Amino acid sequence: MHVTFIDTGIPELGKLQQVAEGIFWLRMPLPFDLDHINLYLLEDNHNGQQGYAVIDTGIGTSRSEALWDTLLDTLDKPITKVIVTHLHPDHIGMAGYLVERFRVPLFMSQAEYFTARALSAGARGASDWQDDEYLVRCGMSKDYVENASKNRKNSKGVGQVIRPIPLQFYRLQQGDKLTIGKHDWQVYIGRGHSPEHVCLFNADTNILISGDHVLPGISPNIGVYSTEPDANSLQLYLDTLPQFTQLPADCLVLPSHKRPFHGLHTRVQELISHHHQHLDNLRAFCVQGKTIEQCLPVLFKRKLSDQNMFFAIAEAFSHLNYLYFSGGASREINSDGHFVFKTSE
């Protein structure tokens, strides 16, 4: 089965559009190249109260709040629960706002919840020399490292686009069933893009809510960042993709970006092939030994903006760490403090 998008238009920002019985698609804006996120409202019954369960919430900005307020004023039923697939600000950003307004439970996996709490709290006075060292290890220039350090000190951090996270949550784990309305949704956990990403599948309606783990047309960012430079994120991602080929091939997939689609098995195989093609290209390129920065043109053919560079470095790092930890490349530190990855011929 090929990947095919559902034959509907895209909803206007902040407007609901039905995609299945009892399931509504909502788009919110993002201030990035990827300029939107898909959220979903599902008809629900919580403690005898009819309403909507919200899956993901949008980035925590005044614009998102205004769109939510306008929408909520038009809804015929209240929000009954808030479910967050993972910790990234476009997903968790408005969760605290909605939980506080409706006094409803927050559902997340444990690793996502506590990592979000930690990141939104910021450094709290801790030194950032390890952030600088990370960029040096990546082979970035002295000017780049100095500018990045200056920008960090002038930034309020990710917490500025995440509304205060509730002090209580309900834990979702692999294999759990979450009841929403008249349906039970099976919890699947993906890793690599984030620590413990929640996806939800309902067998009755044959629908998968895939979050960022399985996206059409684009791959989620699979990165290694300064907080854990020895992470093997790509291995985690590739390990948690095949489970989705056990679901029905014709299920409807509701992703966090782009459009809902059919063709789950095909898309999973495309994502796996995409990353293995990158790995093959890096194996050939790194025979002479290369830094992470030198590998960027192998993975990215377009000119990278400053914002995109941050994610591109992390993505290259994850692929090279995969080769290193699988025994396909050596990793040494040169006299400039850069990691040099070298593959055998």
How would you describe this structure to a colleague?
By secondary structure, the protein is an alpha/beta fold. The protein has a single domain (4-125, 157-283), classed as Ribonuclease Z/Hydroxyacylglutathione hydrolase-like (Metallo-beta-lactamase, Chain A, 4-Layer Sandwich), CATH 3.60.15.10. 34% of the residues lie in helices and 23% in strands. The protein has helices at residues 62-74, 89-92, 95-102, 110-121, 129-137, 142-154, 233-240, 264-285, 292-299, 306-325, and strands spanning 4-5, 16-20, 23-29, 36-46, 49-55, 79-83, 106-108, 170-171, 177-180, 183-190, 197-202, 207-211, 252-255, 261-262, 330-333, 339-342. Strands 2-3-4-5-6-7-8 form a seven-stranded mixed β-sheet. Strands 9-10-11-12-13 form a five-stranded mixed β-sheet. A two-stranded antiparallel ribbon has the order 1-14. The protein is globular and about 65 Å long.
